Amino acid sequence: MEKLSLNKQYYLFKNLSDLFSAGFTIKESLQFLSEVGGRQSTIKKIANKLSEGNSFSDSIVGLVHNDFYNQIMISEKYGDLSSCLAELSHFIEVKLENKSKIKDLLFYPIILVIILIGIVYAINSFVLPQLSSINYMQHYDLGWLYIILFCMFMGTLIVSVMYKRLPLLRKRDVISRIPFIGKIYTAYMGYILSLELKMLIQNGIDLKNILSILKDFKPNTIMYLLGEKARRLADHGEDVGQLTKMYSFIPVEFNGFFHHGSKVSEILIKLDAFSQIKFEEMNRRSNQLINLIQPLLFLFIGICIVLAYLVVLMPIYSSLKGI
């Protein structure tokens, strides 16, 4: 099945969680949505898979993001599916709001950049040749600018290719070390990991069994790969807490939460509070970065405009000095 857009995943999770809260069962909820909502064909496919004896998580494989699938699978087996869908819909809602803010902030600067590129091209193609046709007028070649832009493009391309070749966990570790963005991603991972661990632990599942459960996660996802790493450490008699040193996106606070002798009730309270703190931190840092984007773009555009004027005025100024 074709993967739903993030917006459609939001409405699916939100509508289902609302219907669960109203007392609907999963089958009644899907039946209701197939009658009144959009994407009836998708809803009917999910309902058909459920009627064939599949779980809800298995019925939406391929339709939703793999990380969302993992959380839904855990909550369906060991937790509260309604609460999980509500959490996911809230998370996606914040993500969609931030994407919308970024689009709104970038629209005007992008138009200005396009106009600026047109101005620089016009100066180089029409204005400077006219100025250089005057014998005493010095011509300034903009070839250096094209060389710089080409080098920037090639550098970005090389870095992108190298990044794509990295293993998934190493990719995420690189992201977590990038200024500004890294803090946001680390907060996101703290939120996701603490939320999923809380769902498992509150059902009486110990660490050893948690590592076994992670085998059922979608391959090539963060939780699945972290589970593999943790199992290898445990099999060699090493401390699983070493993962916090291996990957910077894993919160070091987890080592304190799971120290020997901690009560399950205390761990659950800490994980619940930590997930909320990290969600708020992720949202706050995202807004700070979004608010920083437009001023930086305007500063860049302003510098480029000044340089463009200098390209035109410097030949004139040089020629006046020679008169």
UniProtKB/TrEMBL annotation:
Location in the cell: Cell membrane
Transmembrane helix in keyword set: yes
Name of the molecule in the record: Bacterial type II secretion system protein F domain protein
Keyword terms, alphabetized: Cell membrane, Membrane, Transmembrane, Transmembrane helix
Membrane topology classification: Multi-pass membrane protein
One GO CC annotation: plasma membrane
Ranges of residues in domain Type II secretion system protein GspF: 14-129, 197-315
InterPro entries to which the protein is assigned, alphabetical: GspF/PilC, T2SS_GspF_dom, T2SS_GspF_sf
The family this protein is said to belong to: Belongs to the GSP F family.
Membrane-spanning parts: 105-123, 143-163, 292-317
